[in-house]
Amino acid sequence: MPGSFRVYSNSDRECILRNVKPVGGAIGKYDGAPLYDFAEDEWGRIYRYVGICSRSLPHNSSKKYAAILGDREFIHPPGIIYRML
User: Fold this and answer.
1) Whole-angstrom Cα distance, residue 85 to residue 78?
2) CA distances (Å), 37 to each of 14, 17, 67, 68, in order?
3) In 22, 53, 71, 80, which residue has its Cα 20 to 30 A from 29's Cα atom?
4) Which has more pLDDT, 9 or 29?
5) Over 70: is that where the pLDDT of 57 sits?
6) How far apart are CA 47 and CA 26, in angstroms?
7) What residues does each domain of the chain span?
């Protein structure tokens, strides 16, 4: 997870979260990627793991991703959903 990554939000647009790092230990894995309970971005905003999105969604369609997201939720590849606290 450490680093910057492109995410999709429910505002129907792509954005980039920068310098995101895990907070605490891994709580599991999904599609080879570690799951962390919390993550923090470069501005100190905290995100909490809230679920997994369907693999059937295309990886290049922010509109289809946006349809499943709640307020202040983001998808971290490969489909891990985090919500900003």
Assistant:
1) 21
2) 23, 17, 23, 20
3) 71
4) 29
5) no
6) 14
7) 3-84
User: Is pLDDT at 58 greater than 60 in this prediction?
Assistant: no
Q: pTM for the full model?
A: 0.72
pLDDT tens-digit series, residues 11-20:
656 666 778 8
| Residue 50 tokens, joined | 């809230």
Quickly tell me which residue has 């129907």 as its tokens.
12
Query: Cis bond leading into 78, ω under 30°?
Result: yes
* DSSP per-residue string spanning 3-54: EEEEEEBTTSSEEEEEEEEEEEEEEEEETTEEEEEEEE-TT--EEEEEEE--
